[in-house]
Design a protein that fits this description.
The structure holds two protein chains of two kinds.
Chain A lengths: L5 H22 L5 H9 L3 E3 L4 E5 L5 E3 H13 L5 H14 L8 E4 L5 E3 L7 H9 L17 E2 L14 H11 L14 E4 L13 E7 L5 E7 L11 E8 L3 H15 L10 H8 L1 H16 L9 H8 L15 H14 L1 H10 E2 L6 E6 L10 E3 H14 L3 E4 L5 E7 L3 H11 L13 E2 L14 H10 L3 H7 L4 E4 L13 E8 L2 E8 L15 E2 L4 E2 L3 H15 L6 H8 L2 H9 L4 H5 L1
Parallel strand pairs in A: 6-7, 7-8, 16-17, 17-18
Antiparallel strand pairs in A: 1-2, 2-5, 3-14, 4-5, 4-13, 8-9, 9-10, 11-12, 12-15, 14-15, 18-19, 19-20, 19-21
Helix pairs in contact in A: 1-2, 1-5, 3-13, 7-9, 11-12, 13-14, 17-18, 17-19
Chain B lengths: L5 E3 L12 E4 L17 E6 L6 H12 L5 E6 L6 H6 L4 E3 L9 H7 L14 H4 L2
Parallel strand pairs in B: 1-5, 2-3, 3-4, 4-5
The chains are: A alpha+beta, B alpha/beta.
């Protein structure tokens, strides 16, 4: 992990002090609500339906055990609503049918951050101070600025890696932090970076998607995509540069963002993202960026060129950790032991197959701790669970964990011979669901139970589908499927990129759900990034599990041997799936009853 | 950070029709006025809302790209919490919005020892200045 320097530490502390100053001026009435709001947003404080939400930045998803413990402490000691707030929330959500609103927990997001839902604003500055003790903060996790940079959850350990994206992600994190020119952009701005052959970071769906590649001469650089995004106009990014030398990336991004800052629309919030500018201006935008970039290089002297010395300094933080020194078994002995455990216990065999991924180091594995299980929403972790995760990371993974885009935790440095011990511990903690990339490993936003923007609740839909698909044989038989659920068109649950997408919509003050099929995040399984298409008019919440079942039955009936859901859908076309989905609507008399 | 930005009270900011003062609209291209820059002492850049960040890019282009040496003044919805970034982007004076209490301004400049990235005043980023 990146090791904070004294400068980095001091910076985070100064930021926390700045926030306290702003909070106190707001409390004293010296800073108006609309003046304070953009400032607190840029520190991760977002006021939701009933209480504030804090989004803590986890740069490119990397967390240490020490940081996880502080997150656990925040969940335990601070994620507690005032009694009146909680009473109102439970009453209002109770009318919709929500029986319980959890407190004292953290939530892993699709952008690899961690959110808390109940911390009173009056305690916000104390929480920022606490976060700063472990080099954490909420800088630019909300607001119209450059947001936390996301990356491949397997960065630095992936077997298919061209180059480790983390040093670049860190250098860009520093560059974008409190950038004076780009703090008030037309709209939010998200960057994702990957260094592997497979795109596990949904780069095509980002305002800027960066893919590390090597050119014919073997030099390292970036393929630069600009103008992707979800929301009400889903668009895949346009390639601006097939190859940009790595040391120029910040000079180039400066051009990309400056042209956007000057010409992006500010009159309509739904047309303010860079994707709209790129789409509307097309080649003219690209020409402007190239001209600006040339000016930065020739006239300004390319001040943000990454020097080899700076790259080396940052990259030195990302060398593989020193794992506990001990005599390792021979690989074949380890393999034989794993095989024996797998033969003895089918649950372990399933977990090995689903939750364990290969590693650059043949003696190691990358292991996913699943946060997709009954009785808790996707990506939710209680204070105790966060502490347990910290312990597991410490014992099995050099004290490091990653928040994944799919809202799980990944342990990147696990010895193959420790897999069985890890499985036992993970099972005891409730993190061993052998469902990674299967139907129940779904993405879901907090939805209408918490979020003020949501049109409908996401969690009850996720819960109903999770309850229905508990048979592991059935799940395995259905195979790898991306199910993504968003409570509104802002698409935090990435419904556009799901093989099956569910979108909450509001009709006459009631919750409805649009179902779409055929989306892709750009991974190998899913193919080129693509937005799914709606199957027809929206469904009631009660109908949704029936619709999912009908779609999956159609898949089982039409698939070829070994063919995945998404491949079958593409081969057969959407019509039989649509017909099945629409056929699952309740009859009028059933709805009335 | 040393505060060099001059704060001007709203009543002191008067338009006396001087031909050496130019008001540049927030959506105007600074490069279009390159020809007359040598005749200008001061350029006023406007913030219609403090959350509209276009003037920061305008100031950068005037200061760094075009080498304008005169005064760049921030007008409009100018608040305490944006003064540091204004100075960093090349503004030399700012007219606080009417009713804004300036007493909290100085400590905003005192707070951060330095920043990561280069800006219009100091071109090189922290890593290049402190290798």
């Amino acid at each position: 992990m990146y090791q904070y320097t004294d400068f980095d530490r001091q910076f985070v502390r100064q930021r926390a002090a700045q926030f306290r100053d702003q909070l106190e001026r707001w409390q004293a009435g010296k800073l108006a609500e609309d003046e304070f709001k953009p400032l607190r947003l840029q520190n991760g404080w977002y006021v939701q339906r009933y209480a504030p939400m804090l989004r803590v930045a986890v740069p490119y998803g990397e967390l240490s055990s020490r940081q996880l413990r502080v997150l656990a402490r925040i969940a335990r000691e601070y994620d507690e609503p005032e009694a009146a707030v909680y009473k109102l929330a439970t009453e209002k959500q109770g009318i919709l049918g929500t029986k319980h609103l959890p407190t004292h927990y953290g939530h892993f997001t699709t952008r690899q951050n961690v959110q808390f839902n109940w911390i009173p604003l009056s305690k916000s500055a104390d929480v920022m101070d606490l976060l700063a003790t472990v080099d954490m903060h909420g800088i630019q996790t909300s607001g119209n600025c450059i947001r936390n940079i996301t990356s491949d959850e397997r960065a630095g350990v992936a077997h298919d890696e061209i180059a480790d994206p983390r040093p670049f992600a860190e250098i860009m994190r520093q560059w974008s932090t409190l950038h004076p020119e780009f703090a008030f952009l037309p709209r939010k701005f998200k960057i994702a970076i990957t260094g592997a052959t497979e795109d596990r970071a949904a780069t095509g769906w980002h305002d800027v998607g960066l893919h590390l590649i090597k050119n014919d001469a073997g030099e390292l650089g970036f393929r630069v995509q600009v103008g992707g995004g979800m929301g009400r106009t889903p668009i895949i990014g346009t390639v601006l540069r097939e190859f940009l030398p790595w040391h120029q990336i910040m000079n180039y991004l400066e051009a990309v963002v400056r042209v956007y800052n000057r010409y992006g629309r500010r009159d309509n919030i739904y047309k303010a993202r860079i994707k709209i500018l790129v789409k509307a201006e097309g080649q003219r935008y690209i020409d402007d960026v190239e001209a600006e970039y040339q000016q930065i290089i020739t006239h300004d002297g390319a001040p943000h060129t990454i020097t080899q010395a700076e790259f080396d300094r940052v990259a030195a933080s990302f060398v593989p950790p020193t794992l506990a020194t001990r005599v390792l078994q021979a690989a074949d002995v380890t393999e034989a032991a794993l095989q024996k455990h797998a033969a003895d216990d089918v649950m372990f065999a399933r977990w090995l197959a689903r939750n364990v991924a290969p590693h650059q180091n043949p003696a190691l594995r990358a292991v996913t701790l699943s946060f997709k299980r009954l009785k808790q929403a996707p990506g939710d972790a209680t204070a105790d669970q966060l502490d347990t995760a910290a312990r597991l990371a410490e014992r099995f993974s050099a004290g490091e964990a990653r928040v994944t885009h799919d809202q799980n935790l990944l342990l990147p440095w696990v010895h193959a011979e420790d897999l069985h011990a890890l499985w036992l511990a993970a099972r005891e903690a409730g993190f061993a669901s052998a469902n990674v990339r299967l139907l129940t490993d779904m993405i879901a936003c907090p939805g209408g139970d918490f979020c003020d923007l949501a049109n409908a609740r996401s969690i009850p839909i996720a819960e109903a589908i999770t309850e229905r698909y508990q048979d592991l044989d059935e799940l395995d038989d259905l195979g790898e499927i991306d199910l993504h659920i968003s409570g509104c068109i802002n698409s935090c649950g990435h419904h556009h990129s799901g093989h099956i997408g569910i979108l909450g919509v509001d009709k006459d003050g009631k919750e409805w759900y649009q179902v779409s099929l055929g989306g892709s995040d750009g991974s190998d399984l899913s193919g080129a990034p693509l937005a799914g298409k709606a199957v027809g008019p929206s469904f009631t919440g009660a109908e949704v599990p029936e619709v999912i079942e009908a779609v999956l039955t159609t898949y089982r009936d039409t698939r070829n041997a070994g063919e995945t859901f998404i491949d079958t859908l593409r081969r057969v076309g959407p019509d039989p799936f649509k017909a099945a989905a629409n056929g699952a609507r309740f009859k009028a008399e059933e709805v009335a009853a | 950070m040393n505060k060099t930005l001059k704060l001007i009270a709203a009543e002191e900011h008067v338009d006396d029709g001087s031909p050496k003062v130019l008001q540049l609209a927030n959506d105007a291209d600074p490069l279009a006025i390159a020809v007359c820059l040598q005749d200008i002492d001061r350029i006023d850049l406007n913030f219609p809302k403090f959350t509209d960040g276009r003037a920061y890019s305008q100031a950068f282009l005037l200061r760094r790209r075009m080498g304008f040496q005169g005064e760049i003044r921030a007008t409009g919805d100018v608040l305490i919490d944006q003064l540091v970034q204004m100075q960093r982007m090349g503004f030399t004076s700012a007219v606080l919005r009417e009713g804004v209490d300036a007493s909290a301004a100085q400590r905003q400049f005192d707070r951060f020892a330095a920043f990561y990235q280069g800006d219009a005043v100091k071109a090189e980023p922290h890593f290049a200045a402190n290798p």
